[in-house]
Amino acid sequence: MQKIFLLAGTALLMVACGGSEKTYDATGTFEATETTVYAEQSGALLTFNVNEGDSLPAGLEVGLIDTTQTWLKMQHTEATKVVYQSQKPDMERQIAATRQQLAKARQDEQRYRELVADGAAPAKMLDDAESQVKVLQKQLDAQVSSLNTQLSTLNSQLSAADVQKAQLQDMLLKCHIVTPTRGTVLEKYVEQGEFVSVGKPLLKIADTEAMYLRAYVTSAQLQHIKIGQQVKVFADYGDGQRKEYAGIISWISSRSEFTPKTILTDDERADLVYAVKVTVKNDGYVKIGMYGELKL
Asked: Which residues pair with 187 in a beta bridge?
């Protein structure tokens, strides 16, 4: 009989010891990559089709800031470009007359050179013809230089107008509020009709499909983990309700830090721990801030 009681007591002790064994190596909280969308232009918010809890794809236009003044500036820039373009000189036409006069003067110069060589004309006539050619050549060079300067100035003004147009197009584009990444709307900071200024936060979204558990491990546990390692993650719903997920260690901190008060590790007496991130594919039940457990 004593042997039976001894065996029973031993079994109960083993069960008790087994029940006190931890089913996790570290705990933490679930997080998601959060992105705050800011206003990039100032103006009245004409539309803003966003509600907290909405699941939005990347690249979706969700709002529009008033573009009237920017659009008017762009029209003014386009009109200015037309004016500059119309002022461009037609060089060939403007120097055509001088070219023709110069060609005629060179013919006269050649004729007088032949006459002087034959003794049929005085040398002064050749000197006058050569002088006329030089004068007309200088006039032509001056015209070409002046027209080139005018053309260069107008081209620079056109280039400046093109830059201004590109700036205005960029401003117009930034009036359209577009989601930079997919995610769920966590917070909405403004309403349609409000005036917003550059840098004002409009909404915050988070990719809740690709969640991660931020947990803390001791230095002794570091030798058992590495980037890309597959581990088990448990979402804690309270009252003993847990759900298991497959996780992959995606980041390990290179610096130690003091144990956060809200975090338990395998060695609760450890003062210094290392943060790790474990990527988990969310099935819709894991929420930001929920407690989780990590099993190596």
From this structure: 204
